[in-house]
From TrEMBL:
Species of provenance: marine sediment metagenome
Membrane in keyword set: yes
Transmembrane stretches, start-end: 12-31
Residue ranges annotated for the Ribonuclease Y N-terminal domain, each copy included: 10-197
Keywords tagged on the record: Coiled coil, Membrane, Transmembrane, Transmembrane helix
UniProt protein name: Ribonuclease Y N-terminal domain-containing protein
Coiled coil: 37-64, 102-181
Pfam families, A to Z: RNase_Y_N
């Protein structure tokens, strides 16, 4: 038989071995856990760093975009302001031009009104002078205006007849020289029309007086 003390030692070694293995396993697991934890912490720190960097990039991009938008808005505002200023200036100049033209038109209206009044006075003077002249002529001649018109019309008729006769004689001479009957007829017709128109025009202009 194996002595009891040897068996006890064997049990003790086994227990110590088990305890040592457990301790080693526990230590290894702790080391592994610590390593995993360190790796996890490292990864987390890297992720946090990336997040911080990305956040800084986003903030920078936001600032740049905001600056760009603000600059664009300020530029557009300045351009609109300049356009409005120019438009306002043009409108003011146009209003001044319109006002100036209105004043000129008012001045011209007044001048025209004054001129019309002056012309009307001149017409009245002329009418008065004509009336006085006719009255004086009637007194001097001892005849009325109607009688004077009839006398003048008779004189014009006689003169027109003489002129027409002279023209006809001249045309007949020219027609005989050219020996063209058709031309003679056309010229005679034209002369007759001319004489009639002239007599009528003279009579009408005289009667209008």
């Amino acid at each position: 038989m194996i002595p009891v003390n040897i068996i006890n030692e064997i049990y003790l070694y086994i227990i110590l071995g088990l305890l040592g293995g457990w301790a080693i396993a526990t230590l290894l697991s702790r080391v592994r856990a610590r390593s995993l934890l360190n790796k996890a912490r490292f990864k987390l720190s890297r992720v946090e760093e990336e997040v911080r960097n990305r956040r800084r990039e986003i903030e920078l991009e936001k600032k740049e975009e905001l600056h760009r938008i603000r600059a664009s808005f300020e530029k557009e505002t300045r351009e609109k302001s300049d356009e409005l200023h120019k438009l306002s200036k043009r409108l003011i100049e146009r209003e001044e031009t319109v006002d100036r033209r209105l004043l000129e038109m008012e001045g011209k209206k007044k001048e025209i009104l004054v001129e019309e009044q002056r012309l009307e006075k001149e017409r009245e003077k002329i009418r008065d002078l004509e009336i006085k002249r006719r009255e004086e002529l009637e007194k001097i001649a001892g005849i009325s205006t109607a009688e004077a018109k009839r006398s003048l019309l008779d004189t014009i008729k006689e003169e027109a007849k003489e002129e027409a006769a002279q023209i006809i004689q001249k045309v007949e001479r020219e027609a005989k020289e050219t020996a063209n009957k058709k031309a003679r007829k056309i010229v005679a017709t034209a002369i007759q029309r001319c004489a009639v128109d002239e007599v009528a025009g003279t009579v009408i202009s005289t009667l209008s007086l």
